[in-house]
Amino acid sequence: MSKFTSRPVLRWAVPAVAAVAVVGAGVAAKTLAVAAEPNLPPRTAAQLLVDLQTAQLDGLSGTVVERADLGLPALPSLLGDQSSELTSLVSGKHTLRVWYSGPDKARLSLLGTQGQSDIIHNGSDTWTWNSKSATAQHYKKNGAETDPTQKGPVPSELPKSPQEAADLALKAIDPTTQVSIGNSAKIAGRDAYELILRPRDTASTIGQIRLAIDAQEKLPLRVQVLAKGDSNPAFEVAFTQVSFARPDDSQFVFNPPAGTKVEEADPGKAEGAGKQPEHNGQQNGEQPKSTVIGTGWTSVFVVRTGQPGQASTDPAEEKKVQDAINQLPLGNGGRTFNSKLFSVLITDDGRVLAGAVTPERLSQVAADPAAALK
């Protein structure tokens, strides 16, 4: 059974699209400022954790503000820079609208200055639509359960609602995590408790994660991620307006606007995209080999993308990627790509290591025989 079925509240507000987003430089925190602390009955951290595990979500609609200031290097060739593209969520401020009406009806709309991108899930049908490119893709579920956030063209690395961000945070709760209570707050006009998660391992680049939990509905209204040593969030996703009434069914009906180019997506490709890579190299259609070293906050993902000098099926794309990599500084055994919340190491032997850890930890993991992937 899917974890989203057994724990529906932890599947973000829009299950069809639902899957770290940041407020930087202090400005974001002020923009999403909350009112004076409400006077709420005391609850322990354990009680709030139970609330999150047992809450039920029948319907929801609202506006979400997502902010990201990860301190990423300027590599436009690798990162999306269009405000209405879902890939743009890695940087800046974004406004999204969400609707949810049970596990079979959900919608997300990313509103940009140059257009919008929508994902609509209704029963066995899932649509993605981009107004700027006037294109749409249609996915038809045919039996096996599919999750468009993991198997479609939607980037799932960044959470796009407080529910999804809370789900990611709660996965890390184990003996390596310190859990405490913060100050109560008023978010989107609603009273909320605050739960604070802190990693005990000093190798983690994350200082703390703050969850604002609705006092009545027991659902996350805001999630903030702070880098170690910072007092302002490096990631924030929060409701600015929310209703827990079920939206009208018309919100989940998508009719492609005139002039839209519609592509019927291959469900076989969608299912294959979610499979765990099992092979080494990329020749003859093989997938890159990967593994995870460590657990919890300081786990490191390792993938071998190919041997040095291995030919690419698309030389132009290979050159574009290599030029971007060459812009990265050398250090700790390869090219490094560091942000406030995570680090990436690209080694000379064709491996990529990434995690919410210090560059030094990545270098240590790279030397581990278990991460050789030979």
UniProtKB/TrEMBL annotation:
Residue span, MucB/RseB N-terminal domain: 152-245
Annotated spans, Disordered: 142-161, 255-290
PANTHER family linked: SPORULATION PROTEIN YDCC (PTHR37507)
Keyword Lipoprotein: yes
Domain of life where this protein originates: Bacteria
Biased composition (Polar residues): 279-290
Taxon lineage: Bacteria, Bacillati, Actinomycetota, Actinomycetes, Micromonosporales
Name of the protein: Outer membrane lipoprotein carrier protein LolA
Organism of derivation: Dactylosporangium maewongense
Pfam families for this protein: MucB_RseB (PF03888)
Assigned keywords, A-Z: Lipoprotein
Keyword Lipoprotein: yes
